[in-house]
């Protein structure tokens, strides 16, 4: 996956709490067999009416936030079912970081494995960012995973805690497969020795 070190981007405010995975990517889209293309269905039921008309006042339809790669949201983001598709949808749409006071545990794990940095800040700090992103045109944030800071160049400066192993994987761009391939030579040696031992036993 793409390494994440420092990202500066337009920030999109999603001023809602308890955003569950069924809203992030509704269940009718889970039968897809690919890991790509889910971005088209991100927040599908919030983006449009039952007849398919775009809901103008939903933030994802607001042209002011087109191209945003950082989302600011309320507490308990990613609650609900454990579907990894929620992380796929966010990533496929273009989001690389989400800032919120708290995240659901399984979603937190799924997001990290798919290159998305989840930043936990206090409710007061998140409220400030939500207000700024809603009222300041082209409001941008810089998320530095290496320094573990969030800044806006206007005076906002916050630090956040982050698991060391998850940070290593994200900074180096290593998903589960990438982590395994770092030991490819040792695995090849083991397989050869294992095969040779079984061949001798068979004789």
Account of the 3D structure:
The model has no long low-confidence stretch (mean pLDDT 91). The protein is globular and about 70 Å long. The chain is of the alpha/beta class and 203 residues long. Strand 3, helix 4 and strand 4 (117-120) form a beta-alpha-beta unit. The protein folds into two domains: 6-172, Aconitase, domain 4, CATH 3.20.19.10; 174-203. Helix content is 36%, strand content 16%. It has a seven-stranded mixed sheet with strand order 4-3-2-1-5-6-7. It has helices at residues 21-24, 44-47, 85-93, 105-113, 123-135, 164-172, 176-181, 184-202; strands at residues 6-14, 70-73, 97-100, 117-120, 140-144, 149-151, 157-159.
How many β-strands, per DSSP? 7
Head-to-tail CA distance between termini: 45 Å
**Element-by-element helix/strand order:** EHHEHEHEHEEEHHH
Rg result: 20 Å
Summarize the SSE layout with pairings.
Layout: E1 6-14, H1 21-24, H2 44-47, E2 70-73, H3 85-93, E3 97-100, H4 105-113, E4 117-120, H5 123-135, E5 140-144, E6 149-151, E7 157-159, H6 164-172, H7 176-181, H8 184-202
Parallel strand pairs: 1-2, 2-3, 3-4
Antiparallel strand pairs: 1-5, 5-6, 6-7
């Amino acid at each position: 996956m793409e390494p994440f070190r420092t990202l500066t981007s337009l920030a999109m405010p999603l001023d809602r709490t308890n955003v569950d995975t069924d809203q992030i990517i509704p269940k009718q889209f889970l039968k897809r067999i690919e890991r790509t293309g889910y971005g088209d269905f991100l927040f599908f039921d919030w983006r449009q009416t039952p007849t398919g008309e775009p809901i103008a006042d939903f933030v994802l339809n607001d042209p002011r936030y087109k191209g945003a790669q950082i989302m600011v949201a309320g507490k308990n983001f990613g609650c609900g079912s454990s579907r990894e598709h929620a992380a796929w949808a966010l990533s496929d749409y273009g989001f690389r970081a989400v800032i919120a006071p708290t995240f659901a545990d399984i979603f937190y794990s799924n997001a990290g494995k798919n290159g998305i940095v989840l930043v936990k800040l206090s409710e007061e700090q998140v409220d400030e960012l939500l207000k700024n992103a809603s009222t300041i045109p082209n409001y941008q944030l810089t998320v530095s995973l290496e320094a573990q800071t969030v800044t806006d160049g206007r005076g906002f400066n916050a630090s956040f805690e982050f698991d060391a192993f998850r940070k290593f994987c994200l900074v180096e761009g290593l998903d589960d497969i990438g982590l395994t391939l770092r030991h490819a030579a040792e695995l090849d040696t083991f397989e050869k020795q294992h095969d040779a031992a079984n061949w001798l036993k068979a004789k």
